[in-house]
């Protein structure tokens, strides 16, 4: 059995849990997520998959 795990849903899940636990982290989490997403988009990391 093979399980494919993409990066974006995993990051979104961790960010959501952290925001629920510590709401003050919202600005930092959103900023880091946007920076990472932008860098992956610029450098072709859109096809990056963990197996």
Mean pLDDT: 76
Number of strands: 2
Please indicate the percent range of residues in DSSP E strands (runs of 2 or more): 5-15%
Number of helices: 2
Class by SSE composition: mainly alpha
Q: H/E element string?
A: EHHE
- Largest beta sheet: what is the strand line-up? 1-2
User: Which regions are unreliable across 5 or more consecutive residues at pLDDT < 50?
Assistant: none
Q: Cα distance, first to last residue?
A: 11 Å
Radius of gyration: 13 Å
Write up what this structure looks like.
- With 51 residues, the protein is mostly helical.
- It has one domain (5-43).
- It has two helices and two strands; from the N terminus they run βααβ.
- It has helices at 7-21, 26-42, and strands spanning 5-6, 49-50.
- It has a two-stranded antiparallel ribbon with strand order 1-2.
- α1 (7-21) runs antiparallel to α2 (26-42).
- The model has no long low-confidence stretch (mean pLDDT 76).
Features:
mainly alpha, 63% helix, flat, 2 helices
Helix and strand topology:
Elements: E1 5-6, H1 7-21, H2 26-42, E2 49-50
Antiparallel strand pairs: 1-2
How would you sum up this structure in a few lines?
By secondary structure, the protein is mostly helical. The chain is 63% helix and 8% strand. The chain has a two-stranded antiparallel ribbon.
